[in-house]
C-alpha cells in the first residue's frame, strides 16, 4: 500500500453555485428541489471532509506503526547480535564493568551467569516479537479500516455522481418542457392570428365591400331552395306511384291467394276421389280372384250393375 503518493488535505470543493436556487428561473417546486439538492451537496461535502480527515489520521497512525515496527525489528536484530558478540567476548576474557560504572544505557545492573543472560535476552526478544506481532496486527486492522473508508468514499462518490446525473436529467427535462411550452405558445399565437383573419374576412363579407358576393350567395341559396322543392315534389310523386303500385300488388296477391285456396280444395277433392277409386279397384280385384277360384260370377255381375 503506497501512502506516500497521495496528496493530503481536504478534497476539492463542489461547485454548488450551479444548483443554487438564486440561479434557477423555474417554478416554486423546482426552486425547492434545487434548495434541497444544495443542502444535500453541502452535507455531502462536510462528510467528505471528515472522511478525508479520518483517512489522514489513519495514514499518520499507520506510518507511525510501521516506523515503530521497523525500529523494533532493527532493535531486536541488533540486540541479538550484540548478545552473541558479548557472549563471545566474555569467553575471550572480555573486561567487565564495575557495578557503579555507567554504561551507554545507564548504570550497569548486577547480572547472573551467562546462561541467565542468554535466557533474559531470549525473553526480551520474545517480548519484542510479541510487540512486533501486535503492531503488525494493529497495522493490518488499520489497513482494513482504510480499505473500508475507501469503499465508503467510493460509495459516497457514486452517490454524488448519481445525484449529479439526476440533476442533469431534471435540467434536460425542464429544458424540453420549456421548448414544448414555447412551441405550444407559438401555435396558439398562429391560431389566434388565423381566427382574427377569418373574423376580418367575415366582417368584410358582411360590409358594403362584399355586396356582390352576398348577392351571389343569396342567388345560390335561392337556387338551392328551388332544387330542394323540386326534389321534394319528385319524391312525393315517386311515393304516390309506389303506393298505387303497392295497392295493385296487394290486390293481385289477394286474388292469387283465393285461386290457391280453390286449387287446394280441388286437389283435396281429386285426392279423395282417387282414394275411393283405388278402394273400388281393390274390391273388384278381390271379387275377380274369388270368382276365378269358385267359378261364380254373380258378385261381379252385381258389382257391375251397381257401378
Automatic annotation (TrEMBL):
<keyword id="KW-0175">Coiled coil</keyword>
<feature type="coiled-coil region">
    <location>
        <begin position="118"/>
        <end position="145"/>
    </location>
</feature>
<feature type="compositionally biased region" description="Basic residues">
    <location>
        <begin position="76"/>
        <end position="98"/>
    </location>
</feature>
<feature type="compositionally biased region" description="Basic residues">
    <location>
        <begin position="1"/>
        <end position="10"/>
    </location>
</feature>
<feature type="coiled-coil region">
    <location>
        <begin position="214"/>
        <end position="294"/>
    </location>
</feature>
<feature type="region of interest" description="Disordered">
    <location>
        <begin position="74"/>
        <end position="112"/>
    </location>
</feature>
<protein>
    <submittedName>
        <fullName>Uncharacterized protein</fullName>
    </submittedName>
</protein>
<feature type="region of interest" description="Disordered">
    <location>
        <begin position="1"/>
        <end position="28"/>
    </location>
</feature>
Amino acid at each position: 500500500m503506497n501512502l506516500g503518493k497521495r496528496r493530503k488535505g481536504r478534497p476539492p470543493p463542489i461547485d454548488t453555485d450551479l444548483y443554487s436556487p438564486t440561479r434557477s428561473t423555474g417554478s416554486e417546486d423546482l426552486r425547492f428541489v434545487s434548495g434541497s439538492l444544495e443542502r444535500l451537496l453541502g452535507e455531502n461535502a462536510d462528510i467528505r471532509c471528515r472522511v478525508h480527515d479520518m483517512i489522514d489520521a489513519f495514514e499518520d497512525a499507520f506510518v507511525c506503526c510501521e516506523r515503530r515496527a521497523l525500529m523494533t525489528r532493527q532493535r531486536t536484530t541488533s540486540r541479538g547480535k550484540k548478545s552473541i558478540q558479548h557472549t563471545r567476548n566474555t569467553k575471550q576474557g572480555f573486561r567487565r564493568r564495575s557495578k557503579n560504572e555507567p554504561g551507554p544505557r545507564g548504570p550497569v545492573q548486577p547480572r547472573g551467569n551467562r546462561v541467565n543472560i542468554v535466557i533474559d535476552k531470549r525473553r526480551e526478544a520474545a517480548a519484542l516479537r510479541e510487540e512486533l506481532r501486535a503492531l503488525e496486527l494493529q497495522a493490518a486492522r488499520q489497513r482494513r479500516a482504510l480499505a473500508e473508508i475507501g469503499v465508503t468514499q467510493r460509495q459516497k462518490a457514486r452517490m454524488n455522481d448519481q445525484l449529479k446525473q439526476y440533476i442533469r436529467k431534471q435540467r434536460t427535462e425542464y429544458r424540453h418542457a420549456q421548448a414544448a411550452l414555447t412551441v405550444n405558445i407559438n401555435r396558439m399565437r398562429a391560431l389566434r392570428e388565423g381566427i382574427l383573419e377569418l373574423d376580418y374576412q367575415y366582417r368584410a363579407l358582411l360590409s358594403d365591400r362584399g355586396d356582390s358576393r352576398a348577392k351571389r350567395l343569396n342567388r345560390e341559396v335561392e337556387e338551392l331552395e328551388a332544387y330542394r322543392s323540386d326534389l321534394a315534389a319528385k319524391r312525393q310523386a315517386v311515393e304516390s306511384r309506389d303506393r298505387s303500385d303497392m295497392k295493385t300488388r296487394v290486390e293481385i296477391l289477394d286474388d292469387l291467394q283465393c285461386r290457391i285456396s280453390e286449387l287446394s280444395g280441388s286437389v283435396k277433392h281429386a285426392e279423395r276421389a282417387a282414394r275411393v277409386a283405388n278402394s273400388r279397384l281393390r274390391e273388384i280385384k278381390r271379387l275377380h280372384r274369388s270368382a276365378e277360384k269358385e267359378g261364380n260370377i254373380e258378385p261381379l255381375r252385381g258389382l257391375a250393375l251397381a257401378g
